[in-house]
Amino acid sequence: MSRIPLAVLFSAAAAWTWADAGEPAATGPAVTILARGAWPHLPTHTGAADRGVHERAVRGEDELAKVAGRGALITVPQALKVGRIDFTKQMLLVVEDGSMPLVGISGGGPPSAPYAVAITRVERDGEAKRLTVSWRRVRPDKAQGVLTRPLQAVLIDRFDGEVAFRRLPPADQAGAKDPSPAGQEVRPVARAFWPDGWSPEAPPRQWVVRSEAELIDPRLRAPEPVLERMRREAAARYAKALGVKGIDFTQKMVVGVSAGVQPAGTRIEIARVEVGGAGKAMLVRWRVLAPLAGQPASGITHPAAVALVERFAGEVRFQQESEKKD
User: Fold this and answer.
1) pTM for the whole thing?
2) Averaged over 168-189, what is the pLDDT?
């Protein structure tokens, strides 16, 4: 998925009525929406600051959503190639290693972690009170691509006793050997690998672009021709999404809104824009729309919408409306 320019200024979403601006909650004068469009340039996940090693036994949907977001309830079973995870009968064992440095590879290309991770054995003691999960760093397979926070998860039959993780030496380390079996092996039902770990889901966003300067990150430092090219590219993306030839930011501005990560097929609609607060505030009313009938809805996405309106110098706020039934 393409990336939105880093510089687009996002304002915090807040529930708001015209009463907050000193006027009744009734609908204010409408602002003409000059153009609308879907905005496909938002990532579903963000980079995680935590670069540690994580060993997890996940026994429920709430636990999975906490560490990987609600979308993981869809994407993790897909990666494991199972229809769904029945946590009353199954559980996940997860190892993620974000502690390795990212190093350059021969022939150029982006930096990558030197190792992947692999859960090599799961065994249960004779009294069925303890589960031991052995894992180690392994040389990556070319098919795994660039690694930033390699993670492997295995799906096993549910075990309600103690779970202990045992880290073994890297597979290519001199003298590295698997320990002798100490219990009954538990064979995984399925396993899957993620090169970038389970990153936090990107949050909902609302934003306003009033000038060409706001099309790129103001912190960027580069020769002016480079920055200007980036502005033109960002402006072209907005124009394409809105279905217009170009945007004159001296006269117009763009408002955008998303609802965060949603099931695939979900749509965002900017339903109405109005002015209130004695002409000092603009309110963008928006809503989430369910997937169209018959549209495939497999996976997750981060749907967003943008609208083109006349330039407004006052405060802009956003309010979510109830879903419209198609």
Assistant:
1) 0.72
2) 86
CA 231/CA 216 separation, integer angstroms? 6
Predicted pLDDT of residue 96: 96
User: What confidence category does residue 4 fall into, taking pLDDT thresholds of 50, 70 and 90?
Assistant: very low
- 276 within 8 A of 283, measured Cβ to Cβ: yes
Q: State both tokens at 268.
A: 């965002």
With CA atoms as reference, report the closest residue to 4 among 302, 259, 242: 302
pLDDT of 36 reads 96
Of the two residues 6 and 158, the one the predictor is more confident about is 158
Burial class (CB in 10 A: 0-12, 13-18, 19+), 215: buried
The reply to whether 109 and 125 lie within a common domain is: yes
68/65 Cα distance (integer angstroms):
5
Instruction: Say which residues have a Cβ less than 8 Å from residue 61's Cβ, sequence separation at least 6.
Output: 73, 85, 87
Q: What is the pLDDT of residues 229-238, one digit of tens each?
A: 999 999 999 9
Q: Scan for tokens 């915090």, then name that residue.
A: 12
Residue that finishes a domain, picked among 160, 194, 228: 194
Instruction: Report in angstroms the alpha-carbon separations of 182 from 60, 134, 163, 166.
Output: 28, 11, 14, 12
Token digits for 199? Answer: 């990153």
Domain span at 99: 53-194
* Total domains in the fold of the chain: 2
- Round the CA-based radius of gyration of the chain to a whole number and report it: 25
